Amino acid sequence: MALLLCALLVLAAAAGCGKKTNRLSPVDFRTQANRVCAKYQAKLKALPAPNTLAEVDGYVSKALPLFTGEIGEIRALTPPSNFQTQVDRMLSRAEDTVAAARKLRAAAHKGDEAAARQALKDGQAASSDADKAARSLGLTACAN
Known about the structure:
Blueprint: H1 2-15, H2 26-46, H3 53-76, H4 84-110, H5 113-137
Helix pairs in contact: 2-3, 3-4, 4-5
């Protein structure tokens, strides 16, 4: 009987391990996510904007860690279940923006203006979609 009780206790403890299920309230999620976005947006705005294609490579190299840091910190939050689909959409399109930024950096490094324009267009479309999702969630600091 004691062995069975121990086995049940181990199973009960193991069942509690794994993915975090304590979701934030809507207010707490918005507050925390807006704080994260405001922090990273301030850092991005502090970067000097590139004026030439040659300067884009360096700019994107400095901006990418900020983009990925922001995405990572938002992803670490546990939104209310009714927010999850829009949060996933926002983060997916934010990751698409990062992918476009990497393509932009590569194009700038090669001096390929056509590829840089296409990457910029793709990044702007992804960013616009991410901003729409952020606004729908009340994440005003995350929508530019």
